[in-house]
Amino acid sequence: MYTATRGFLLWDLDPKNTISSTLTGRMASVVTVLIGAVVLTGTASAASADWRIAGYVGAAHTSSTTLRVSPAAGMLVDIPDVEFRGESWTSPIYYGYRIGWQRERSAIGFEAEFTHAKTIAADTHSTSLTRFEQSHGLNVVLANVSYRSQAFCGGRCVAVGRVGGGVSIPHVEATYLGDRVSSYQFGGPAVQAGAGLEFAVYGNVTLDVDGRITYTRVTDDLDGATLSAPFATWHVTVGAGWRFRSS
User: Which domains does the chain have, with CATH numbers?
Assistant: First the structure.
């Protein structure tokens, strides 16, 4: 069933997916806290400020990594050099959005951001773990600090750099010893760094081009084991933004 919370956070229309109400509430809480922090930061100042709302699509590639499987009973197993497909344009496609606040005449801003990427193991190299996907999202929810400057574009655009931290919320789809798991889970801490350009298109509307890298270390629950791994993901995105001013 497609819930309001799920619709707010995740573009995911597959009716076969399961999602716990506890985790749904957790995801909504994380997003609410981050957006609320940006809003409170902006309203705390009496000076006029610039707000930006942006959405984007694009492509992502996750570097190969080692999957560590820790059975409930038995020895842990490391599966090295597992490669991943991003399938950014296969439904549900890659997407993200952010809201940001920046004080007038200041180059420093603050943002809340959500990104939906995917990691699908091309080959698990294992007879026990025969499938591992985060295909409905290696999702990350982040709070960013941004820096904007027109100096790099000669006034024709705005160059943006950002760093951020938050959490990952993967949708785990795995088959371990014949038992299938399909659920959203709390993954672990996440960080990112990136840069981009914003081009004025019409009025307060901008065309945004970005490149970023995110890093998260997740621990996923399987049926009878846990799986942990670091994921470094490269993102290239294009989207649209809308800028408005409060006073």
Answer: 4-246 (2.40.160.20)
